């Protein structure tokens, strides 16, 4: 494949689906550890029920067809295949928007926001705020697999941003917006830095103004604001959380063997990442189920069927994980930014023109709260048109 853009269609061989079901049926299940449920990780009974549904109830072909309803393409950029959705709006003045998905997620993250963004007229929205959506699979994720042997050059967020600028140029878009969540929130500001003459604005779900623990961040804040920042700094940088990030940043290859050999190991990993938003309940009770079960399993299936659970960990190993870089080259909008104190911190290095303190049921906001997210994206870019 050359620099040309080729049509792409998902077509998973039936043998791969049969193998997945056989592996799910042959799972070796661990004993339940003592202690409150969820306090030591995903409970055995919860995962068993989900795995049984994945094996006998979930219909991959239906969701494959749902994804194939979106126009898909592939091209080679910087030596890697880049797969992407390209859904044009029926509105003639729609703004091109490149949307970068999360980790550990995929282009399936945007299934429920593409319609409201590309055709707001059909979804009760303002047709003057329509978008042509381009949603690439990050390198090493899904249908953008790394070649074998892998290119040893790091895929930093900045390198991805340069690739995205090239992709938009190949599509003929000279003026466009950028949106991102999680890993996508790292790439999108880098895209503004790489192509400020083309990017009209960057919309993020969050990450700007987040404390690092530097005492200088507390300067000029009152006691209540200091306490708020200190609390979040401890949550982000202290002993909380499940501890996966340091391991991925150091030994992703070791973890990849289990994720690529056991679909249940892959599923458990995703369940924990998708439900861990406000932290595990202190009493060990189950966290809320913010994402539709089939949406979760579509994502798990994409990781399993493309064998990209290991290669997707470059976001940590290559230093691309963390918080978005500051940039004032183009305006920024944030949908889930937290209280005003975090906006004040973000404004030290960014041109913030839109800030909302929205909440969501999961860190995978496009999956748990697609309607409010699409509305916030439209509101932000409506200020820039």
From TrEMBL:
Protein's name in the database: Pimeloyl-ACP methyl ester carboxylesterase
Keyword vocabulary terms for this entry: Aromatic hydrocarbons catabolism, Hydrolase
Gene Ontology MF terms in the entry: epoxide hydrolase activity
UniProt entry tagged with the keyword Transmembrane: no
GO biological process: epoxide metabolic process
The keyword Thylakoid is annotated on this UniProt entry: no
Record SUPFAM superfamilies: alpha/beta-Hydrolases
Domain Epoxide hydrolase N-terminal: 5-110
PANTHER family in alphabetical order: EPOXIDE HYDROLASE (PTHR21661:SF35), EPOXIDE HYDROLASE 1-RELATED (PTHR21661)
UniProt similarity note: Belongs to the peptidase S33 family.
Catalytic site positions: 182 (nucleophile), 316 (proton donor), 363 (proton acceptor)
């Amino acid at each position: 494949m050359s620099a040309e853009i080729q049509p792409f269609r998902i077509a998973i061989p039936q043998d791969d689906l049969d193998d997945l079901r056989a592996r799910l049926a042959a799972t070796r299940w661990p004993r339940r550890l003592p202690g409150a449920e969820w306090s030591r990780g995903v409970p055995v009974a919860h995962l068993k029920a989900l795995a049984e549904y994945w094996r006998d109830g979930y219909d991959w072909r239906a969701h494959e067809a749902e994804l194939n309803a979106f126009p898909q393409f592939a091209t080679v950029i910087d030596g890697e295949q880049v797969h992407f959705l390209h859904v044009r709006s029926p509105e003639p003045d729609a703004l091109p928007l490149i949307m970068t998905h999360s980790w550990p997620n995929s282009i399936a993250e945007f299934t429920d926001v593409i319609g409201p963004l590309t055709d707001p007229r059909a979804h009760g929205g303002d047709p003057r705020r329509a978008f042509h959506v381009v949603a690439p699979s990050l390198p090493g994720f899904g249908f953008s697999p790394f070649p074998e042997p892998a290119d040893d050059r790091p895929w930093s967020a900045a390198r991805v941003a340069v690739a995205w600028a090239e992709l938009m140029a190949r599509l003929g878009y000279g003026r466009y917006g950028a949106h991102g969540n999680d890993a996508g929130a790292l790439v999108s500001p880098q895209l503004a830095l790489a192509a400020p003459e083309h990017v009209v604005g960057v919309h993020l779900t969050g990450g700007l103004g987040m404390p690092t623990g530097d005492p200088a961040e507390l300067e000029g804040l009152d006691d209540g604001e200091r306490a708020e920042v200190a609390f979040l700094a401890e949550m982000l940088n202290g002993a909380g959380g499940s501890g996966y990030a340091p391991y991925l940043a150091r030994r992703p290859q070791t973890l990849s063997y289990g994720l690529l050999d056991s679909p249940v190991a892959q599923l458990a990993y995703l369940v924990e990442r998708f439900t861990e938003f406000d932290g595990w309940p202190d009493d060990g009770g189950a966290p809320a189920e913010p994402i539709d079960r089939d949406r979760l399993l579509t994502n798990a299936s994409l990781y399993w069927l493309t064998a990209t659970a290991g290669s997707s960990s470059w976001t940590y190993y290559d230093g691309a994980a963390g918080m978005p870089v500051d940039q004032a080259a183009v305006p920024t909008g944030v949908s889930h930014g937290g209280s005003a104190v975090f906006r004040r911190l973000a404004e030290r290095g960014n041109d913030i023109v839109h800030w909302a303190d929205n909440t969501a049921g999961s860190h995978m906001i496009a999956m748990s709260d697609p309607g409010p997210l699409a509305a916030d994206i439209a509101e932000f870019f409506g200020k820039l048109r």
